[in-house]
Fold these 2 entries.
Entry 1:
Amino acid sequence: MKRVYNFSAGPSMLPLPVLEKAQQELVNYADTGMSVMELSHRSSAFVEIIEEAEKLFRELLNIPEQYKVLFLQGGATQQFSMVPLNLMKKGKAAYIHTGSWSIKAIKEAKKYGDIDMVASSEDKNFSYIPQLENGKLDKSYDYVHITTNNTIEGTAFAAFPETGEIPLVADMSSNIMSEEIDITKFGVIYAGAQKNIGPAGLTIVIIREDLIGGARESCPVMLDYQTHSDKGSLYNTPPTFAIYMAKLVFEWLQELGGIKKMEKMNREKAKLLYDFLDGSSFFTSPVEKGSRSLMNIPFATKSDELNAAFIKEAKTAGLETLKGHRSVGGMRASIYNAMPIEGVQKLVDLMRDFEEKYR
Ligand SMILES: *Cc1c(COP(=O)(O)O)cnc(C)c1O
């Protein structure tokens, strides 16, 4: 069977044991005589799936009781609207601008209130995570928004800003479940599933209960957190198959030893690639060392021709989707939870050979 190492930024690799389990259960799920895709979302078989998915997700991330977990659709992009629609009561929010995704969140939020960009790394092409200076925040803000991992630029917050009483809202799409985090530091966490959780179509929101119920009058029913919270994410038909796949990924994570173990593996994987980049005079990384992402690692040679040649050689070697985002160029290796260390080792070996050949 052909399987490649897929370095795609999203949708991205899924663990092979998860795909195999889904394959095995596909046509006749748990002796129902149906696939999960054909089950009613009100059936006891599906209700068991969604309840188990939530239970495992809570256990893995150590989510306190006063937080709700919502299984939604619309992607992280829909959260760019849902967050201001639900949380902007005083009409003012603070955003930290760290790249292509944060600017989309900012543009959307501006439709609903006054947005202050309280820190930005635009001055250096988003190659670092900016510090939030003291005195930038006051009680007039409804929330502070950050993008914990910048999928395109390859940066990540090493420490989260202290926001005191002001709820911290995080787009965690590309590094949720990759390392241990303290959920209580956040008011809202959201993530599209297609990077570190499962297939596209599912978006998970973790929200502190007191932040639910404040949506403005004109908020569409489907964009009101209260709607989904009241109905246990079953107000309308949820993305049933994606939720089932996420459950299988959570089981895989738990079997592997949980997030603590996953973080250790992710650090080893990233170190392998960063150590090579640091020792290379041929490949370069655009990101400042203190701001490096464990998940998305952009790198480049000195010319577009060499970059293209590298991507071609990689493809031949079974290393796929290494082309960098068009706004950054070069290459990008997305090494989410499902990427085994063998894939990263193969990439580094190829980089070493390529450097020998072309330097
Ligand atoms: C992929 C991504 C998004 C967009 O997610 P969709 O699910 O496609 O809407 C937003 N933010 C970050 C950080 C991402 O990585």
Entry 2:
Amino acid sequence: MPPLNGKIVTVVLFIAVLLGVLYCYISQSYRVVLSFEERFKASDKEARPPQEVVVTLSRHELHLVSQDYLRYKQPSIVQGRTDVVTVTPWLAPVVWEGTFNPGLLDTIYRPKNITVAVTVFAVGKYIMFLKNFLETAEQHFFVGFRVHFYVFTDRPNEVPQIKMAAGRQVTVMSVPSSNRWQEISARRMEIIQTLIEQKLENYCDYIFCLDVDSKFHGRWGTESLGGLVAVIHPGYYRDERSRFPYERRPASRAYVAHGEGDFYYCGGAFGGLLQEVHLLARTCRENFEADAKVGIEAAWQEESHLNRYMWINKPSKVLSPEYLWQDFKSRNSEVQIIRFSGVVKNYADIRPN
Ligand SMILES: *[C@@H]1O[C@H](CO)[C@@H](O)[C@H](O)[C@H]1NC(C)=O
């Protein structure tokens, strides 16, 4: 019967096509697996330091769990800050007062039992700022979270005793004194890199590197956490980028050409996940040393190298100038709260040169 024959032919053809598609799919994925394995073998041969392999991202950054009992103000999708930009062109949040719910964020991060490391350099007379820095940090910096301050100083005997809340502590690390503040600044990246490798791995989750000649005035907490975190410099945030004090000599590894650069970031505050800050510190140190070999010192030392790094490696979170203001600067209207601020000082009194 012709109609039945037709049906059988159709079914056979259909199965044949199905098998064909299946074969193509399997051989395709086989090829993908092969090439992936080849690539894996190739990268195996390169000597890589183990620090880069450790990835704990998922525990901290990628999975944000709230609590179902939590009640809080409804977030709006159409109303918010209109006087400032709250997201970068690469879609990283810019943290301003009014863009986040502190209670919600703390609830999300508390069960993660995170430990935040802080590095602070109190070399020479800069030790005079340490007491105020630590005391105000106890009042405002990650209150209720585990924080470990690492104080690098050439005057360990002068480190003040500060009463710390539970889960928070200070470790004093000795460093040699230096005759030039530029050198102190330069060695910071190397010291941060070494600290992460030797002490912090498998212990801390995040790290912030902060200037000691500053103090806290308002909350600085979980809203600042991210992979790579940069702070907008308070002195240039309203300026054209042609006015940013980037390193402009092409011979320097910190070079940023005219027409390049997003923002001008502070050298006095940066941070993020351990692995990210490790890579930043290592890269800036290598670039700094390469510059030194050809006799170049970048315009603003490590700040210049940091700005070059952040131009290529975009920060995943940007903190507004609320997170590093300067006491001598009058507050602009968009700055609704000052959280951390550089204290007024006389450089002639404290810098060795
Ligand atoms: C939190 O972390 C610290 C340090 O890693 C650890 O000693 C402590 O047991 C942890 N607490 C909980 C509840 O997991």
